[in-house]
Amino acid sequence: MSATTGIGTLTVRPLDPLKDAELLHSWVTHPKASYWMMQDAKLQDVEREYMRIAAHEYHHAYLGLHEGRPAFLMESYDPRYVELEGLYDPEPGDVGMHFLVAPTDRPIHGFTRAVIAAVMDELFADPRTRRVVVEPDVSNKAVHALNEAVGFVAEREIDKPEKRALLSFCTRDQYLAARGVAI
Question: How many CB atoms lie within 10 A of CB 146?
């Protein structure tokens, strides 16, 4: 994926769990990433987690770049087998998504919104993707507003082992409508 936006070019590449672990560790343990639930993780914990994801058939991690520099983390997963198994009735073409924007001392206005749009573009670039599924913490109001801005509709709260989550869905048409693209 490569998307040129008002804030510059965003691209993604597969995450290298060993090469990228130190960088990821600095992101996931930052106070801004509290909802990532890895605040106390050691470097080896991050390596182990992303090695697990790299080896998983239904879970994938990508490093997002802004103008060629690491700037965000993207994960996609099949909710039939990862994160949401047994918590809702998945439909054909459902794809789960997580994303994390790297902490920065120089925020760019509109950056997070551009990132989520780039992530959604990447997911919907696969014609098999019919609907994107997310399950953020119910108390993460900022991400709920961001999700809604790109077309997600909240369905219901669910109890996951690690959190109470807001199960939300976004179809391709909902996403395009939110982006102002004629359907």
Answer: 18
